[in-house]
Design a protein that fits this description.
The structure holds two protein chains of two kinds. Chain A is an alpha+beta fold. Chain A has seven helices and 13 strands. Chain A has one domain: Sulfite Oxidase, Chain A, domain 2. In chain A, β8 and β9 form a beta hairpin. The radius of gyration of chain A is 17 Å and the shape is globular. In chain B, α1 runs parallel beside α3. The longest helix of chain B is centred in the N-terminal third of the chain and has 30 residues. Classes of the chains: A alpha+beta, B mainly alpha.
Chain lengths: 265, 214
């Protein structure tokens, strides 16, 4: 289904788009198994992204359960063409459609105690057959610091290539944080919870030495098992150098000023 | 099947062993290897290295259980195909993953345990491939040749560890390889133990006039 009235955004890159077919058949979405092709085969069959509700809860003045269609009307939808860098060393350029997360956060009115925002994926092995195995501690859980969540680049995506988000890409609602590794982008979100303390996220719990809370793209800090200096852009033969903050340093570097990025990786 | 029939079985098995490579080449040409073809080729050549390693390690148990002699005639070929796919796998790493960044590779091999293991598995296969000919076997002498070729166990263990340590979260496939390898090596350990019980002396003192068992 095509989405109407999507505005262009100044935050978009002009780089060459990764073909729709690659964006929708090469996915890390362990709720549908650990292979890259699995999600595109299973998610269209099993996941039911409508009707869908999202509970906004925790340290906020106005907790509320939203219908997905209400979220889509919180702000005008924008096209954001972002680079996406996976922690595994590959990258894509994806034209997302969505709204800035801060539009939803403003509605919720976080309390002074709210310092982190968590994003929790659906847990339902009937809709997500990969959850029948304990590949990861389910449900998938990700989080951002509140200032990261408020950043204008941080997107709640509801579509890509001008269409409703395909199931395998995290329908009906997913997070996109372009300066962080892709796994920060929780998919098929059912809960957005405001917290006063930094939580342990799913991959941190699965492999604490390998995945930190911040997961900012950083060519100087390698994954424990491979270098992050270079990446293979899907569709390209040679590898290209990985850029600090995935090339979004001008916009986001100030968030991490004074932090030891080797420690807070 | 008698031993001479192997002459008829060998060529088709040789060709079948090249099939994974043929399919990869075809897939690459037709662009049907998915969004990340180089990753697919890397993974497939790694899988087939392990497949052929395990196949060649299955020959001895198969012979001891069935008392068939003919599978022994295939063992060298299967082992050499393991080496062949390992060479492809390693060449892809050097070329398409590292693009001849030698410094990066040395760092990888020294500092990343899964690459250390993969490299070890590969390097250990080299002397085995070089001494796989009948001439080399004779030059080394049966017993020394056999002892050298026990390195295949170390190589296979390193190869499986390479896969186990590579995977992010889903260990199902690497652990399947590990389980099969454990059965194949466990079988040998049991046989060795029984033989020792029967002969009452350590295996090193055994005269080895029989064909090489690995």
């Amino acid at each position: 289904t095509r989405l109407g009235n999507i505005r262009k955004s100044a935050y978009s890159t002009t780089e060459k788009l990764t073909p729709f077919k690659d964006v929708t058949t090469y996915n890390n979405f362990y709720e549908f198994g650990s292979s890259k092709e699995g999600p595109s085969k299973l998610a269209p069959r099993y996941l039911k992204p409508r009707p869908w509700t999202v509970s906004v809860e925790g340290e906020v003045r106005r907790p509320r359960v939203y219908d997905i269609d209400q979220i889509m009307k919180l702000a005008p939808l924008e096209e954001r063409i972002y680079r996406m860098r996976c922690v595994e060393g590959w990258s894509m350029v994806i034209p997302w459609a969505g709204l800035p997360l801060n539009a939803l956060i403003r509605q919720a009115e976080p309390l002074g105690s709210a310092r982190y925002v968590a994003f929790i994926t659906l847990q339902d092995p009937a809709q997500m057959p990969g959850q029948q195995r304990e590949l990861l501690p389910w449900p998938y859980f990700e989080a951002l610091r509140l200032d990261e969540a408020m950043h204008p680049l941080t997107l709640l995506a509801v579509g890509l290539y001008g269409q409703i988000l395909p199931n395998q890409n995290g329908a009906p609602l997913r997070l996109v944080v372009p300066w962080k590794y892709g796994f920060k982008g929780a998919k098929s979100i059912v809960r957005i919870r405001f917290l006063s303390r930094q939580p342990a996220t799913t991959w941190m719990r699965a492999a604490p030495e390998e995945y930190g809370f911040y997961a900012n793209v950083n060519p100087e800090v390698s994954h424990k098992r491979w270098s992050q200096k270079r990446e293979r852009r899907i569709g390209e033969f040679r590898k290209r150098p990985t850029l600090m903050y995935n090339g979004y340093g001008e916009q986001v570097a100030h968030l991490y000023r004074g932090m030891d990025l080797n420690k807070y990786f | 099947m008698n031993l001479r029939a192997v002459h008829y079985y060998k060529p088709p098995i040789f060709i079948a062993s090249l099939l994974p490579l043929a399919l990869l080449v075809q897939g690459y040409v037709q662009d049907s290897l998915g969004a990340n073809p180089i990753e697919a080729i890397t993974r497939e050549t790694g899988d087939w290295t392990l497949n052929f390693l395990l196949l060649s390690l299955a020959i001895t148990p198969l012979r001891q259980i069935t008392h068939w002699q003919w599978p022994m005639r295939l063992r060298r070929m299967l082992g050499l195909f393991a080496f062949f796919y390992a060479c492809l796998h390693f060449a892809i790493y050097i070329w398409l993953d590292q693009f001849f960044d030698w410094k990066g590779m040395v760092y990888d091999i020294l500092d990343r345990p899964f690459i250390t293991m993969g490299f070890l598995a590969f390097v250990l296969l080299i002397p085995l491939a070089l001494t796989s000919t009948r001439g080399m076997m004779q030059r080394l002498g049966g017993q020394r040749w056999q002892r050298l070729h026990k390195l295949i166990y170390v190589s296979a263990i390193a190869g499986v560890l390479h896969y186990v340590w590579l995977v992010k979260a889903d260990l199902q496939e690497p652990l399947t390889y590990a389980a099969i390898l454990a059965v194949l090596l466990g079988f040998r350990a049991v046989m060795q133990y029984r033989k020792r019980q029967l002969s009452g002396q350590p295996p090193a003192n055994r005269a080895s006039a029989r064909p090489p068992a690995g």
